[in-house]
């Protein structure tokens, strides 16, 4: 089967790859680009561990074909920190002990950032429903929700000066 | 001997009890941490498993000709590629790869290594297996019937004297208790006897099983894998492939959840066998469907519980029988369940018996406090019903019968210092229990027990030349334990938390370590770290004595510094660890401490849970409105991660209580092997989980630590069942209490 050549942008960098027609964006990121921060938990769009941004949209990369990245912008967990400085969500996840094993953490961070980009002042209920597409088996979600709410508050404070 | 800070303490902590950032935090929020599937090797092949589509079938023949002819296929292994193994490893081998019969849908029949994943998937489909389909059984009670299809024709129930004459699906029987049950029931004013069933729940870790195995021509092999115990992986794989343990080095990746489910090998021996056959590294990763169909889960069960009580609220006797379904191979979970059944209560007459029952389901694996939540659901439901009949507050009723220090436990040993009464009192006094129940809601509570374990432990602690410290431990960090290890080392040495780094060493770097399970890691590693630190301190005091040219016993260690002890010892400036470390070349070489122990004295723990629920009588859906966990930690080293264990265990229990369960059709095929249909709790299903830490020190640990990982999953099933009963008047005897099940019960209840 002929491979497809794809030109895309990942975490701000132009890149090209070849992939099989049926290969998912998740497989491309992990197995071809070495970006293993995006995790496979189910490969059926039910757990959110593979969450990435495709242009401005939060997607499960296991449900996107690699070929669909042509001409688009993909943002993964590896691009979330600004150089050596963690994104406030990343820092607060550590400070609030919002991870135990850490396998779901990249997906939660991508999803939470997508929420805060759209809604800088979410209620607890809004956080819980937005993150309902991401499974965490360790934490019971309590500290994740607190970390996201605290980050939102902190970032609003920053923006207000 | 130099004098050092007292090793054992229950107060005056400097680092223990604080909440520092975990040392692996940045790696895990940036995607840098490497989990099981996150590694690659040059020349690597991809392995895939062919699994039985039948729940029970004789394997007549396996023809690999077509698959091997596919371009890119390098090797196929079947049962024939494994030799005889010691008896203790037979079940593991036969689970890893079907021998003669496929015993459950999903049972591995062959494995392929190919140049890439797409070829491997195609090759698996080209393997031609001829099956003779056999009758199957997946239900625990049906499996115990006289005419049930037999899984193993040579299985005679163990634990019964005399040995049964006929083989059966009952793998083993166990019994615990003391006193005289009949006498106890004769003294009772009220006797309740109830029957319960529960369905199997999966551990549900988000990271599927994954490994990379490399077998070298010189006989030295390596495995990288996601596991709760890499020493267990090493020893098991070495036995299954008949290689020396010294020749196999296993490195544990970061682990994406386990909860008991990663205490068993599945892929590792197959990958190693494929690597041996091809001379290439072989990587294998399970799909989610494979995880559901071929790993874990916990037992399903049927149980009978009978409790007698006097009118003034004293329990006179407790009896229970547990039938736990253990999958295609035997287990020990009914035994653990029987031991836990009445562990919360001080009883003169108690008996609990358990049968491990073979069925055509995946081999049961431990799941967080294995066996305990199931029987706890049954016993705590009856306890709740009795409290109601007596008109006594449920917590007061439990307090009236609670186990205390010095009591003989229902499973045998006498209790040492335990925190059950304090835990119950704290639950009773908690703002949640004191608050009025909100309109439209109802409240339930239950209490639970788990043993906690210690076990084989080997650690080393190296003082680096700049005075920082590296601790090597041999148990994977599954929930932030490296932070607690660093804290205990820093506390014992008197140095800052930031100056200690803890790593998970591979199997060639330390002596054998028991698996990260049984809530043992913080207890057993911690105990060994504190003692290793003591060894390093003594060595450092000796070096300083040499530098100062005074006797070793004239040097003492205080707050991270060597000091002359008393004016007679001489007038020297205190010397810190950095200075001592810098001078090691002149004083005798590197400084280290190590400790090897079979750690005993893991203190048991108790957990009391309170839930407020709302039941939608039109849909049968139960909403958790408020939830509180009160649990004894002995000493919380890092309180945030202790709270995390309480919260996580509670939510797993909520999922098991309300939704999770294996669904089988008459065809013996699991119908919900994915996260859409096997529905675990999501963020919007649960409220914040209030976590209250009680600290009754465990005398078996220098800082009083008890394990905290498992007890929190024990009470939720009963807690929620009791709350549902308060809400609806219906005593649910079946788990999960999923909306269709509860709705049916509500409709029947309304009909009267």
Layout: helices, strands, pairs:
The complex is a heterodimer of chains A (161) and B (752).
Chain A: E1 4-10, E2 13-19, H1 25-32, E3 51-54, E4 57-60, E5 73-75, H2 88-95, H3 105-118, H4 124-130, H5 142-160
Parallel strand pairs in A: 1-5
Antiparallel strand pairs in A: 1-2, 3-4, 3-5
Helix pairs in contact in A: 2-5
Chain B: E1 3-4, H1 25-30, E2 45-51, E3 57-63, H2 65-69, E4 73-77, H3 90-96, E5 101-102, E6 108-114, H4 117-126, E7 128-133, H5 140-144, E8 170-178, H6 181-186, E9 190-198, E10 210-215, E11 221-225, H7 230-241, E12 248-252, H8 268-278, E13 282-285, H9 288-294, E14 301-309, E15 315-327, H10 333-340, E16 350-358, H11 372-390, H12 394-401, H13 420-429, H14 431-434, E17 442-450, E18 455-463, E19 469-473, H15 481-493, E20 500-504, H16 521-548, E21 555-558, E22 561-564, E23 575-576, H17 577-582, H18 584-587, E24 591-599, E25 605-616, E26 621-632, H19 639-658, E27 689-694, H20 716-728, E28 734-735, H21 739-751
Parallel strand pairs in B: 1-21, 2-13, 9-28, 11-12, 15-16, 19-20, 26-27
Antiparallel strand pairs in B: 2-6, 3-5, 3-7, 4-6, 8-16, 9-14, 10-11, 10-13, 14-15, 17-25, 18-19, 18-24, 21-22, 22-23, 25-26
Helix pairs in contact in B: 7-8, 10-11, 11-20, 12-13, 15-16, 19-20
């Amino acid at each position: 089967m002929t491979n497809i050549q794809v030109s895309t942008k990942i975490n701000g960098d132009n890149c090209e790859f070849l992939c099989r027609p049926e290969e998912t964006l998740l497989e491309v990121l992990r197995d071809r680009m070495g970006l293993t921060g995006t995790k496979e938990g189910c490969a059926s769009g039910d757990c959110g561990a593979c969450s990435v941004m495709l242009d401005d949209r939060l997607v499960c990369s296991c449900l996107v074909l690699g070929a669909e990245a042509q001409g688009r912008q993909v943002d993964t967990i590896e691009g979330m920190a600004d150089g050596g400085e963690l994104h406030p969500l990343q820092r607060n996840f550590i400070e609030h002990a919002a991870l135990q094993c850490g396998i779901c953490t990249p997906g939660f961070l991508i999803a939470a950032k997508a929420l805060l980009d759209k809604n800088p002042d979410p209620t607890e209920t809004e956080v819980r429903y937005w993150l309902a597409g991401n499974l965490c088996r360790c934490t019971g979600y309590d500290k994740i929700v607190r970390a996201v709410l605290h980050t939102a508050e902190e970032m609003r404070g920053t923006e207000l000066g | 001997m130099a004098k050092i800070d007292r090793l054992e303490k229950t107060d005056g902590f400097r680092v223990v009890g604080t909440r520092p950032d975990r040392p692996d935090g940045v790696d895990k929020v940036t995607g840098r941490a490497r989990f099981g599937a996150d590694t690659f090797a040059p020349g690597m092949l991809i392995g895939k498993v062919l699994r039985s589509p039948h729940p029970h079938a004789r394997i007549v023949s396996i023809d690999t000709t077509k698959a091997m002819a596919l371009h890119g296929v390098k090797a196929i292994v079947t049962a024939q590629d494994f030799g005889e193994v010691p008896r203790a490893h037979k079940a593991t081998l036969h689970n890893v790869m079907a021998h003669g019969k496929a015993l459950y849908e999903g049972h591995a029949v062959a494995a392929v290594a190919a140049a890439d994943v797409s070829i491997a998937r195609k090759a698996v489909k080209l393997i031609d297996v001829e099956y003779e389909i056999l009758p199957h059984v997946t239900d625990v009670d049906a499996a115990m019937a006289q005419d049930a299809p037999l899984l193993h024709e040579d299985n005679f129930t163990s634990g019964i004297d005399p040995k049964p004459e006929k083989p059966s699906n009952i793998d083993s029987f166990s019994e615990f208790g003391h006193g005289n049950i009949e006498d106890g029931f004769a003294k009772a004013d009220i006797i309740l006897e109830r029957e319960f069933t529960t369905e199997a729940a999966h551990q549900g870790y988000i990271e599927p099983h994954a490994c990379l195995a490399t077998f070298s021509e010189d006989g030295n092999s390596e495995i990288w894998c996601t596991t709760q115990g890499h020493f267990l992986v090493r020893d098991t794989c070495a036995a299954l492939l008949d290689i020396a343990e010294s020749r196999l080095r296993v490195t544990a990746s970061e682990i994406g959840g386990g909860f008991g489910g990663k205490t068993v090998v599945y892929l590792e021996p197959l990958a190693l066998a494929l690597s041996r056959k091809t001379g290439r590294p072989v990587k294998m990763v399970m799909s989610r469907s494979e995880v559901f169909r071929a790993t874990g889960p916990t037992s399903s069960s049927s149980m009978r519980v009978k409790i007698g009580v006097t009118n003034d609220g004293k329990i006179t006797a407790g009896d229970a029988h547990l039938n736990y379904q253990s999958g295609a191979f035997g287990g020990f979970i009914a035994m653990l369940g029987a031991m836990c059944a009445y562990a919360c209560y001080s009883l003169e007459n108690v008996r609990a018996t358990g049968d491990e029952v073979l069925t055509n389901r995946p081999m049961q694996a431990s799941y967080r406090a294995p066996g305990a939540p199931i029987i706890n659901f049954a016993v705590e439901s009856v306890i709740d019903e009795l409290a109601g009949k007596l008109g006594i507050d449920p917590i007061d009723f439990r307090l009236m019968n609670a186990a205390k220090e010095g009591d003989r436990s229902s499973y045998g040993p006498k209790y040492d210092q335990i925190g059950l009464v304090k835990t119950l009192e704290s639950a009773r006094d908690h703002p949640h229990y004191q608050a009025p129940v909100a309109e439209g809601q109802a409240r339930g509570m239950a209490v639970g027990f788990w043993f906690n374990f210690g076990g084989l432990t080997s650690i080393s602690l190296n003082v680096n030349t700049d005075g920082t410290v590296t601790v090597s431990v041999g148990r994977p960090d599954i929930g932030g334990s490296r932070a607690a290890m660093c804290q205990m080392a820093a506390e014992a040495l008197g140095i800052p938390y930031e100056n200690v780094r803890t790593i998970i060493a591979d199997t060639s770097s330390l002596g054998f370590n028991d698996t990260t399970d049984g809530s043992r890691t913080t207890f057993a590693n911690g105990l060994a770290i504190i003692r290793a630190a003591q060894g390093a301190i003594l060595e450092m005091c000796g070096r300083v004595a040499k530098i100062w040219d005074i006797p070793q016993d004239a040097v003492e260690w205080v707050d991270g510094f060597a000091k002359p002890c008393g004016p007679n010892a001489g007038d020297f400036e205190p010397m810190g660890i950095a200075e001592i470390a810098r001078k090691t070349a002149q004083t005798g070489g590197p400084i280290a401490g190590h400790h090897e122990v079979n750690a005993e004295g893991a203190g048991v723990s108790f957990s009391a849970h309170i839930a407020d629920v709302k039941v939608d009588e039109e849909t049968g859906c139960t909403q958790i409105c408020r939830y509180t966990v009160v649990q004894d930690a002995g000493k919380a080293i890092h309180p945030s991660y202790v709270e995390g264990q309480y919260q996580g265990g509670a939510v797993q229990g909520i999922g098991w209580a309300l939704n999770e369960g294996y669904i089988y059709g008459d065809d013996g095929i699991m119908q919900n092997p994915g996260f859409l249909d096997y529905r675990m709790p999501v963020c919007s299903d649960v409220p914040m989980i209030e976590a209250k830490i009680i600290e009754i020190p465990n005398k078996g640990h220098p800082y009083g630590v008890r394990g905290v990982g498992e007890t929190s999953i024990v009470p939720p099933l009963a807690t929620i069942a009791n709350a549902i009963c308060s809400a609806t008047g219906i005593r649910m005897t079946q788990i999960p209490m999923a909306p269709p099940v509860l709705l049916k019960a509500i409709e029947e209840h309304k009909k009267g």
